[in-house]
Each structure stands twice: as structure tokens, then as C-alpha cells.
Design brief:
Keywords: Membrane, Transmembrane, Transmembrane helix. This protein has 169 residues and is an alpha+beta fold. The chain contains 4 helices and 7 strands; from the N terminus they run βαααββββββα. 53% of the residues lie in helices and 22% in strands. A 4-stranded antiparallel beta sheet has the order 1-2-3-4. A 3-stranded antiparallel beta sheet has the order 5-6-7, covered by helices on one side.
């Protein structure tokens, strides 16, 4: 079973967005979601007890800032991450890829390289409405756009063959 396609910038961004974050990036995200509001709350307490109790409007502004930060920080990081990925991937020249499924495993080839992976090296498969993402390592994977299949039957037979072999291992 073989499929040929060419990835786009959008395909690569989608692949990287679906990649599991490392423990360091998860820790950094949690740190920044908690740290900024914590500093604001501590300054609120400090202002209240040590400066003047007449800063009521300032306290409201600090509270609103904390709430908005908790709500919008993760979304703003996602937007920034997508923008950085698009900027980096626009510099690449994408070439045609061929993915072939066999009883031995997966062969991904292009004009410049060929990689073979056994079925047991596949860590995860994520299917979305637009892609199939195949992860060989937690942060290394391949994107197959569903638009590259000529029909729904071809797509269904490809994914069934894929899942049947991955589930064996």
C-alpha cells in the first residue's frame, strides 16, 4: 500500500501543534500561568497592608489583570508558536514524499532520502479531520494529509491497514 504527496507549511504546523509537549515546556507553561498572577496578588497584599488602603481601583485592575492573564496566556502562546513555525517552515522547499506500508513496516522516501521503520517503532497515531500523524518518537513524526488520497475507499483501506499492523505490535 503506497501513497505519494507533498507536505505544505500548514501540514507541518499541524504536526508540530499535535506533538506532545516536553516536560520542560509543560513546566514553563504552568510556571508562567501561575507566576504572573501570584506576583500580582502578592503586590496586592503588600499594597493593602503596607502602603495605603485607599488604592481600591488599583486592586480591581490587578485582579482583572490576573484573570485575563490566566485566560489568555495559553492562547497567546499558541498563536506565537504557530507564527514562529510558519516563519521557519516558509524557508523550506518541500518535496514529494512516498509512504509505503508493508508487512515489515513503514518506508518513507523522497528524492533525497529513504527511511524505514518497523511497526513496533510507531509510538502513536493521531487521526484528525485533515491529517494522519505518525509519531516515531515523542517529538518526531510524519504528517499525511488526507487530501492526498484519491478516494475515501483508498483512505479507509490505508488507515485500516495501518491500524491493523500497529495494533499487532
Amino acid at each position: 500500500m503506497k501513497i505519494s504527496y507533498i507536505n505544505t507549511v500548514e501540514d507541518m504546523v499541524a504536526l508540530n501543534i499535535k506533538t506532545k509537549p516536553s516536560s520542560a515546556s509543560r513546566t514553563a507553561t504552568i510556571f508562567f500561568i501561575i507566576l504572573i498572577p501570584l506576583v500580582a496578588i502578592l503586590s496586592f497584599i503588600y499594597d493593602y497592608y503596607y502602603l495605603s488602603k485607599n488604592f481600591f481601583y488599583w486592586y480591581i485592575i490587578e485582579f482583572i489583570f490576573c484573570v485575563l492573564w490566566i485566560i489568555f496566556y495559553p492562547k497567546s502562546v499558541d498563536i506565537l508558536f504557530k507564527a514562529i513555525l510558519i516563519f521557519k517552515f516558509k524557508k523550506l522547499n518541500f518535496e514529494y514524499l512516498t509512504v509505503e506500508l508493508s508487512d515489515e513496516g513503514i518506508t518513507k522516501s523522497s528524492t533525497s532520502s529513504t527511511y524505514k521503520f518497523e511497526w513496533n517503532s510507531v509510538l502513536n497515531i493521531i487521526s484528525t479531520k485533515d491529517h494522519i500523524f505518525i509519531y516515531i518518537k515523542p517529538n518526531i513524526g510524519y504528517s499525511i494529509p488526507l487530501s492526498s488520497f484519491s478516494s475515501n475507499d483508498e483512505k479507509d483501506s490505508f488507515t485500516q491497514y495501518f491500524y491493523r499492523h500497529v495494533n499487532k505490535t
